[in-house]
Amino acid sequence: MKTKLKNIIDNKWNYAFLLPMLVLFVMFTLYPIYNIISYSFYEWDGFGPLNKFVGLRNYKEAISDPYYWKALKNTLVFAASHLLFQAGISLLIAVALNNTTAKLKNIYRLMIFLPVITTTSVIGMVMAMIFGPINGPINMALTELGIIKKPIMFLSSPDLSLWSTIAVSIWKNIGVSLVYWLAALQTVPRDVYKAAKIDGANSVQTFWRITLPIIAPFGLVIALFAFKNGLYPFDIVKTMTNGGPAFASDVIDTYLYRYAFNPEQSVIKYGFASAGGIFFALVVIGITLIFNGITARVQEKNK
Amino acid sequence: MTTIKKTVKSSKLFKLNYMKKSIATNVIFIPLCFLWCYPFLWMVSNAFKTPPEMFLKGLRIIPEKPVLYNFVRAWKAARFEQYLLNSVIITCGVVILVLIVASMAGYAFAKQNLAGKKLLLAVLLATMFFPKSVGIIPIYKIINALGLNNTYLGVILAIGGPAHVMAILLFMRYFMSVPKELEESVRIDGGGYLTVFIRIMLPLAKPVFATVGIFNFISAWNDFMVPLIFTLNKPSMRTIGVGLYAFFGEGTADWTGLCAAATIAIIPIITVFLAFQRFFIEGLEGSVKG
Question: Domain range for residue A101?
Answer without folding.
Answer: 66-126+155-302
